[in-house]
Design goal:
single chain; 208 residues; mainly beta; 17-stranded mixed beta sheet; 0% helix; 77% strand; elongated
């Protein structure tokens, strides 16, 4: 069934919420054991979710932890997200911090300010796409991974680990210091699986 919870200035502790849930939290504390499919709206709240299927977040100024999830869609402002393990994440963030312990498959991030850290990208991942403006990125890949990358950056402090072989470095705009770095990690493949477009900030791509 459908569950709708609206909570302001309170605490929520619950086990299993129904298949389709909507949570609207303001100045709240929430601990949820299992959330199969939900839309979560959060303002100035602390949320911990243990098991999740497909979640959509619209959040600001919140602290959100998701332990285990299949698919996350996030629209975030000034949040702190801590994601332990997820298959897929699609997020846009302004002044938000994202920390992912382990990513299985796919990530798309559009960010202004704030930061993204993925501590462990599994070697069978399918794609990572990041657009970042004045944000700090730290991505760590399995030493066994094999993928092509294309990193376009302008005035970005770029750090590439020794597993990344840059084959081509093309200046796209000398006034803007815009440079595209193309190459591969581990072994040259057919398609680019890692694409980063960064302006400013710091970008580090390494192996763990």
């Amino acid at each position: 069934g459908e569950t709708q919870i609206i909570l302001s200035n309170g605490k929520l502790k619950t086990g299993d919420l129904g298949k389709n849930s909507t949570l609207n939290l303001s100045f709240a504390d929430a601990t949820i054991d299992n959330l199969p499919n939900a839309r979560v709206m959060s303002n100035y709240s602390d949320i911990q979710i243990k098991e999740a299927g497909t979640l959509r977040f619209e959040s600001k100024s919140s602290s959100i932890e998701v332990m285990n999830s299949q698919s996350l869609n996030i629209d975030s402002r000034r949040d702190k997200f801590r994601i332990r393990l997820t298959d897929k994440v699609d997020a846009s963030g302004n002044f938000s911090q994202f920390r992912i312990t382990e990513l299985k498959d796919k990530a798309t991030f559009r960010m202004s300010f704030g930061g993204l850290e993925i501590e462990k990208v599994q070697n069978a991942f399918s794609s990572i796409y990041v657009e970042a403006r004045s944000a700090d990125l730290n991505l760590y890949f399995s030493p066994e991974a094999k993928f092509n990358f294309q990193i376009t950056e302008s005035k970005t402090d770029l750090g590439l680990g020794r597993d990344l072989k840059v084959e081509d470095k093309e200046v796209l705009d000398s006034k803007e210091n815009k440079v595209r770095h193309s190459g591969y990690f581990g072994k040259k493949m057919k398609e680019d699986q890692l694409i980063i477009n960064a302006i400013g900030g710091e970008t580090n791509v390494l192996s763990y």
